[in-house]
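for the writeup, i need someone to sanity check this before i put it in the appendix. the sequnce is what the collaborator sent (i think, or maybe the updated version? ugh). structure was predicted straight from it, no edits. if anything looks off just tell me and ill rerun, i have time this weekend
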Amino acid sequence: MSMINYASREINCKIVYYGTGLGGKTTNLEHVYAKINPDTRGKMISLATETDRTLFFDFLPIDLGEIRGFKTRFHLYTVPGQVYYNASRKLILKGVDGIVFVADSQEDRAEANVEAMHNLYENVESYGYDMETIPFVIQYNKRDLPNILPVEELRAQLNPNGLTDLEAIATEGKGVFETLQAVSKLVVKALS
């Protein structure tokens, strides 16, 4: 979970973007990275494999306020989309403070979304974390494509518990910061 750096008076929080391959996790992080003030963000690090990559960077938001005199620094991660990288997916979830599940809204990706969601729950629970208490937001990405499922159907498949969910078109930046803001607020609330 979050780590406190007393010397710099910062609370470091880890947010992981989880979902299927090519669902938009990387696009979300790249958009956030490109739009954040360079003075408040770290370097973007990419760990590439032959067919996928994991991205990471951190940033210090200026509008979320302080928690007991400490600034919050968010470290954003993506997981590899392919299931055969499950060991990496699981490792990246260790110490997670908040999760964004990026669902691909395309009809032909419905099964992959459900599989990725089950995989997320299994990996989180393997650490003894409770998905009921981890700040968790679902993003329905690719809402601009012609072959998408209605949001109601996506909710029935992926969000029966009524968690915070948002629509997005990450390639255009629509819904990207709203998603990050939603999960960040939940993380800060959990820390307070």
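The domain at 3-191 is CATH 3.40.50.300 (Rossmann fold). The chain has five helices and nine strands.
thx in advance!!
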